Amino acid sequence: MKEDGPLDKHFEINPNSAPQSGDDLGQMIYFVKIKVAYKVKRGNGYINNYRTMEIPTRMASIDDMNSSPEMIMKMMASLKLTGKKIHDFHVSDELDRQPLSRSFTHKESDYNK
Q1: What whole-number distance in Å separates Cα of residue 87 and Cα of residue 30?
Q2: Residue range 50-58: average pLDDT?
Q3: How many CB atoms lie within 10 A of CB 44?
Q4: Which of 10, 46, 72, 102 has the fewest beta carbons under 10 Å from its own?
């Protein structure tokens, strides 16, 4: 016979159980392929540039990505676009979106938009 230890009743958690309907689920994490647009200053004019990126994000839309300065700063740094010549950096199109999983630390009720 199996003897119950002092902590067996405390840790009665089934990792394969489905979440309860009343529980606050974590935010969905997506793997998104996006097209970013920016301008490079040359003389008195600008040259338009476009690049595609693939990033993991919790943002639900393009507007949320463009309204987050931290997100824009990280995308610019990953493309090595940190000089004074770069203007009007923004996400122009979303090409593909695939759900990855749910976040453990960020709950859906914490998402402002």
Answers
A1: 27
A2: 92
A3: 5
A4: 10
Predicted TM-score of the model (pTM)? 0.69
Residue 12, CA atoms < 13 Å, CB-side half-sphere: 6
Residue 103 is encoded by which pair of tokens? 């976040």
Tokens 């647009």 correspond to: 37
Q: What is the pLDDT of residue 52?
A: 95
For residue 48, pLDDT beyond 90: yes
Q: How far apart are CA 82 and CA 93, in angstroms?
A: 22
Quote the CA–CA distance of 94 and 33 in Å, as a whole number: 6
Checking 105-113 for CB contacts under 8 A at 24+ apart, the result is 105/26, 106/26, 106/27, 106/58, 107/24, 107/25, 107/26, 107/27, 108/24, 108/25, 108/26, 108/27, 108/28, 109/24, 110/27, 111/27, 111/58, 111/60, 113/60, 113/61, 113/63, 113/64
Q: Which residues pair with 102 in a beta bridge?
A: 28
Dihedral sign of CA atoms 97, 101, 102, 106 in order: negative
